[in-house]
Specification:
Length: about 200
Amino acid sequence: MINVVIAEDHRLVAEGVARLINESKVAKVVAITGSISETHQLLANIPLPHILLLDVAMPDGDGIDAIIPLQKSFPKIKIVMLTSYAKPAVIQCAINGGANGYILKSTDTKELIYGIQVAAKGKRYICDEAQQLLVGIEASPELTIREREILRLIVDGRTIKEVAHKLNLGFETVHSYTKSIRQKLGCTNMSSLVRTAIRRHLV
């Protein structure tokens, strides 16, 4: 029996997924958490499960950013992203960040259970829909000259306010640019934006 913990801040969604997993008879959900910090605390105080199903968007941070810290603290756990984020860049970011799997919430129950089984064996599993999205991922996103200029300053450690001052632009203008850049790169926050820009040699 594969033991699973679900880290998902929408309780109804988590309970629905838990019911489907428990009905499979090959895995069982031993706990549900609603935040990254709660997940850390829980895992430190229970027998370690085989699989952690982790959403990308959590109330206290980016699930992708949490992969490495969780793996360092609990190296035996396989972390599978279970999320509605269907952007190629986000999927790629999770894989590069060390995720043992990526399953979209639109996936059917049979594939969800299969993905859990594959990940529990130490292999990486990416659901069919996510794999199809990755086929068309661009090696380099189409950033404008201004977007690349702003991205370069952000990677250098400048705040939005400092970037606006240096480029003689309004704060809201720079904020809109950074939002556009994050969307193009599939990043949910600034730290993942910097990490992705460096990894993909965009600056």
